[in-house]
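ZP: hey, is the magnesium ion complex queued? I don't see it on the tracker
AM: it wasn't, my bad. submitting now with these inputs:
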Amino acid sequence: MPSFPSLQELNTFHHFVHQTLSIRGDIAVDYLFLQCEWKCDYDRVYDMLCAFVVQCKVRKLVIKFPNERYKVRFCWDLFKTWNSLVELNLEGGFMLDVPEYELLFPCLKRLELVSVGYFKDCSVTNLVSGCPVLEELFVEREVYPDNLEMFKVSSVSLKRLWIAFPRFVRGDFLKVVIDAPKLKYIYVLDNMSNDYSFTKPLDLVEGNINHSAETIAQIIPFLSSAKILKLTCIGSSVLNHPHGLDMPMFPNLVRLVIDWGLDLIPVLLNNMPNLEHITFLHQEEPLIVEGNLPEEPPFCLRFKMKEIILPKQDICGKGACGMKIERGEHGYVLEDVPHLTDYIPKLNTHPNPMRFNPAYSVVKQYFVDSDDTVPEKVVVHKNSPRGVHFRRAGPRQQVYFSPDEVHACIVTCGGLCPGLNTVIREIVCALYHMYGVTRVLGIDGGYRGFYSKNTVTLTPKVVNDIHKRGGTVLGSSRGGHDKSKIVDSIQDRGINQVYIIGGDGTQKGAAVIFEEIKRRGIKAVVAGIPKTIDNDIAVIDKSFGFDTAVEEAQRAINAAHVEAESAENGIGVVKLMGRYSGFIAMYATLASRDVDLCLIPESPFFLEGEGGLFEYVEKRLKENGHMVIVVAEGAGQELVAQSNSATAQDASGNKLLKDVGMWLSDSIKAHFAKTKSMHITLKYIDPTYMIRAVPSNASDNIYCTLLAQSCVHGAMAGFTGFISGLVHGRQTYIPFSRIVDHQNKVIITDRMWARLLSSTNQPSFLKPCELIEFQKVELPSTQLLEGESSSSSSSGQN
Ligand SMILES: Nc1ncnc2c1ncn2[C@@H]1O[C@H](COP(=O)(O)OP(=O)(O)O)[C@@H](O)[C@H]1O
Ligand SMILES: O=P(O)(O)OC[C@H]1O[C@](O)(COP(=O)(O)O)[C@@H](O)[C@@H]1O
Ligand SMILES: [Mg+2]
């Protein structure tokens, strides 16, 4: 694209817009996004734009012009005809010169001004004053200086205010005056100005101030009504003195996050009688509170405090970034995921670039509320506690990476699984298209690829078609997890977002990488996407590729059924994947209805004697003339081991399994040869690797897309040490620690296994006394009520 469009190009553009206008007539347009990549004839663009906005009653307007040092004066008079606007975002090459109007935008509720220049001090004041119902104002200033000496906002309707002046660009003194009596939420990140004043007392709900210690001291009396406060200090804290500040009372404050003023803690706590949660961010010095300690502990510590999160060098040595558990009323527990700011407190945030994405901005409230959580249990009793919750996944209003700062990488580890390529594709596309990130690397061949192979550059073009193929375009492997070499490689390449797709073993490895990155204090997030064809990952509803595997298994079961039906006393044996968890076998059996016997690792069985497998096979053949057996690869391993004692491990340390399908087929054949009770024809089908290698089906493709996008949103928002996963149909972020603890297994005392037994009519192979033992150990866990406990978790089996 040339930097200056030719007159002909501009005319074509005008013509196109005029045509659109005449086609649309005066049909209302909800959202209009105008982005110019080049410096152009702004006056003519405004002309067209204004006509369009008025005629089509545009409600939300985004205009993005290139951000240049010499900005173009905004032809402001035209704007005041825009009566329909509810939201206006201006970014880039504008110089706002706003005269005093009584009424400018009568309906405008949200105004975003990013990197625009201001002609005079009164420009911003006039603009805001001309919007009588304005509720949200977002102002981000930029590196090029303008004429502003004082930033004054005066509004009777304003509820939320973001001030982001992150870079120091001028020596001049900039004064900030806020006259907004209805302000409820204020977010300040400011490196430019240090004279703040509020003309009226505030009735705040939340304040988030990242500023110098002096300015925080100036602002703090105005924040005293807040319920939630985050006070973080730019530069060194100079307020380490209890008498340096006249501390007001904070009667409503329940949550405080702070990284400065250690000596103020006793005073702070004394003045915050209702404080329930306090988080101390990173401190240079050990957290030892000396000096004027009150005679008795503050009221909030004695009666109100529910949670204290300490920085890295805390007294118990555990650190704020370990398992983050937060408790609330009525037994509410949030198992939170770590965040970059747990160990790097002074990080800049940026408004989420998705707010300019035309596709997503149609959503009424696109960004996820930071307080949204998803319950682990959805079956509750009237009085049961609210239980464990996970953070809801999705895009956040503020992100911790600017698009050009991100350098991401993707790695796939462990066995294959349908959908791996879809996840890779969707991570790349989400980074590119949603966040404007253009540097994404593929790591070749699993963990060892970090240090022993070249990387692959991934772009939307490269990954365009890969979801139609099975396997992983990046290659995968077992073993090769060398923590130091991997993190060295991440650090050396300047990678700051690591996406790790793999099963339980892979996520254990990811947790180790996360801990090492945190220990080294690197600004890099580690985000996992759980892959397992066996569906053996705890907490989540199911893993991607599982549906495809169950569907593909039907083809093998059908073939086994056809073979069995067409022979006298025909037996079809099908082996399916499932090392420790028999979900594929169970679901494939239930879906097919042709299966007479399903064997899984969780349910022991025996061959000989009364109630044994041979007796059942004979009975079934006599009744029906044929039968189909589905066996998960991990079933009956102890029986197979009796006939073949060698045990070995794969490169990841997983036990290598004996071929139970072959062993079972041989055992059945040998039994009938020995007893001569009937002549049988047995066909053994092993489709295991064929099932793993197919591309994912439609529903898995969609699921993979959601998982990948959620993971990218989480990483951009600065969360780390998490996997994205579906919990009761909602996308969530789950801490690594939660899923590497134990595996998801079929609970054979659940209704789902009972359903299977009833559909196949097979024996349970359990004696009544053994069943009682199982019931004692294996209580259903995902829907446990208070007081119940379980050793493992089930996957919606009830
Ligand atoms: N406990 C562990 N700690 C660190 N890395 C591990 C651990 N378990 C497995 N890994 C690594 O994770 C990768 C995949 O593990 P594996 O068990 O083969 O597959 P999956 O992730 O599918 O369960 C391998 O590179 C392996 O070395
Ligand atoms: O032959 P491989 O590649 O080791 O794979 C065998 C194993 O891989 C799986 O398909 C998947 O296991 P992972 O999820 O641990 O990779 C198991 O069902 C199976 O036991
Ligand atoms: Mg595994």
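AM: back. Residues 324-545+696-752+767-798 form a domain with the Rossmann fold fold (CATH 3.40.50.450).
ZP: great, adding it to the tracker
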